[in-house]
Amino acid sequence: MTLPTIRPARSNEHDAIARAWMASWVSTGLSQASDSLLNDLRARLPREIAGGWTLFVADDRGSIAAMLALHLPSLLLDQLMVVPAYQGRSLGRQLLAFTRRQMPDEIWLKCVRENEKAWRWYEREGFVFEKEAPNPVTGFMMKHYRWTRTNRTSETKP
Description:
alpha+beta
């Protein structure tokens, strides 16, 4: 089995990306799928891109397997969402490796405290917990994490 290809998202894919985002978010058990949630995500994509997101997808022969939203100026990994059918296949690790090539020295991220599966995975991947703070829009308590390249000499350059 070949892994999906990571590439820049296209504007005509926003509906499929929003559906993938919703499926991944709902798989956490923190929300239910709904037309309202899907519409919110559809509306959020162009706003976030206008605000600085660089948006990528994992393309599995024309199907969106995952979305990755980076805010490069602030070194923020804002969203890494894998469609449930692709979870557990190392796609998240592939997306994180791609992120590290985009931001090789430092990465910040926020993760919902109740999404224990996600934040434990980030901790296993070398992210260090910094603090907790509420998200003023959603009300979720967010765990803030930071990763830095600490051993430059032992890592291979791309």
